[in-house]
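1st attempt posting a full record on here, be nice pls
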Amino acid sequence: MLFLFGEDDIKDAAASSAAIVAGIPEFIAALPCESYLHVFPRTHGASSHCQMGGLAYAHVVIFQWLNHVFNGGPLPAKDLGAQAQDVVDLFGKYGGKPAAARTRELLGSATLV
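the predicted structure (as tokens):
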């Protein structure tokens, strides 16, 4: 399963509660399937919900992932999205230490694309 997050999605979830942000990686880790995660940082121009303002960028990630799943093609280039430590820091920024720890654990089993 591919999980797509814009930086602003994570920030907006935090507006309700840091516990919600901390629950996101916990939920993903609990699923009994392969998990892929892509975070669109503000610096790449597609951080709004549904990657508005960066749809071409989102389509590259989505269609490369679909090609990987259905045809065995390569995963999206790692430099397209936020890097592992940046993802941990981002979840930690809005969800505190529990979110950072859970995200670090998640990245041990999920594939960051």
